[in-house]
Fold this protein.
Amino acid sequence: DLFEIDSAGTIGFHTGNPPDSRMREAAARRGIAMTGRARQVRASDLDEFDLILTMDEENFADVTGLATRNGEADDRRARIVRFCDFCERH
């Protein structure tokens, strides 16, 4: 595999639930099986993944908070970006 893609929330509200049925249907139409379960983002994700995309400022703040040690941002912080950072017009 060339890519490993995962999804996690900043709160554990849906932990353990399957993906939204609408999303599973849309993925299935494209030949993609979504078999995972919802989970909460964890600090180890910052070591495991090369890129962490966040949806909004609140998520960005929550995830960048995981990249802090002894009150200082660490090098993992550079892997966390906002989806909108890739938007040319928004």
